[in-house]
């Protein structure tokens, strides 16, 4: 049968090479894996408004004693006046453990097979998420039980981010990395949206299922990861990605013509690299060595404040919408997903702009500086009708999560493959963990401060201040990028790529 007589669908399949199919499959699989991570983190923010709510509107089933008890429908111990502090404590049990564990997770990820590492982490995440929900059926009212579940879950969830970024980095080169990872990084927002919708479906009837169902989903995805994830292209006979400066690299006969030098000898795995390039295996980079990579410190500290803003919205936005717009827990949770819809758009936009301009830091800086006045405006008009809420949530979500998405994906991958590493592929997971771990410190501080401040106006002032500080921390890199645009030489060629 000639090609012209083949069915259109078959011709479409044949138009893509074997490498393309494997790369596409890996991109989709890692997308789904990390979507399940965020899906299992979201329920706590949805359930807060059910654990402590306005009982005056709840049916008392004819019990007159409820008339004298304004918290009869709340779930102890969150029925006390300090319920916001308790919610903040639960958030931080997860986030502080996550932040601390992240600094070690990257080093483990570079020394262990990523497939096994992710599988174990996802199975344990499913276990602890489900155990939190079982507190509803077991009638557990001890804050310590829920705190321990959050601590354990925060620790095992650190397995996700460094591992999936390293895996994607092994498969994809730097060309259009911002655009590809901008789309790929929407898994964060998609996971938040799905987590909100799933948790919202059960929150008013049996809030325990709001945790049990997401826990089961991430556990199932862990099993899928075990059976299908391929860490390196060479493992299935595919060619490794090429560096955009390949010709210069080849003229120096360096193995850095590849963005990522395979840990195993590609000649044995079906690759076409010279055996000489792999006679000396690079060792995993040290923590201090990763910090010396140009740009790592600045972007890490910037992410600290950017993630502070993002995670404050992640954990507190449904409760804020419920209190300001007077919506029930399910409606508030569903509405909060618009912030993540904006985050998807912002992440893709940031990736496209940074790819086109080649200026990662400047792209982040512009979006962060625009986010500050938008947050002020949202706090001022946030309760003025549904149309206003929808518009402001999407706009704020794009400006807040765009830089966050860009730094944790394309920027981290650029820095983890910086030319100063001379082709050492083992730096990516550690660099990613340092950047995201530092950001996670901010993610822990934001929800904690939101619980302590109590007043929503003060919370928004804190978020605006954080955005401004994130901008200031990028000033040096932005200055270098602008000088590059004006034709001045750069000390580190890698800054242009960042």
Explained architecture:
- The chain is mostly helical and 498 residues long.
- It has one domain (16-52, 80-242, 251-269, 283-497): MFS general substrate transporter like domains (Growth Hormone, Chain: A), CATH 1.20.1250.
- It is built from 20 helices and no strands.
- It has helices spanning 8-14, 18-41, 43-51, 83-109, 114-137, 143-156, 160-171, 177-184, 187-202, 209-228, 246-251, 287-291, 296-325, 329-357, 360-381, 386-416, 428-453, 456-473, 475-485, 494-497.
- The radius of gyration is 24 Å and the shape is globular.
Features:
globular; Growth Hormone, Chain: A; mainly alpha; 20 helices; 498 residues
Order of helices and strands: HHHHHHHHHHHHHHHHHHHH
| Inertia-based shape | globular
CATH topology: Growth Hormone, Chain: A
* SS class: mainly alpha
Secondary-structure topology with pairs:
Elements (H helix, E strand, L loop, with lengths): L7 H7 L3 H24 L1 H9 L31 H27 L4 H24 L5 H14 L3 H12 L5 H8 L2 H16 L6 H20 L17 H6 L35 H5 L4 H30 L3 H29 L2 H22 L4 H31 L11 H26 L2 H18 L1 H11 L8 H4 L1
Helix pairs in contact: 2-7, 2-9, 2-10, 3-9, 3-13, 3-14, 4-6, 4-17, 5-6, 5-7, 5-10, 7-17, 8-14, 8-16, 9-10, 9-14, 13-14, 13-16, 13-17, 13-18, 14-15, 14-16, 15-16, 15-18, 16-17, 17-18
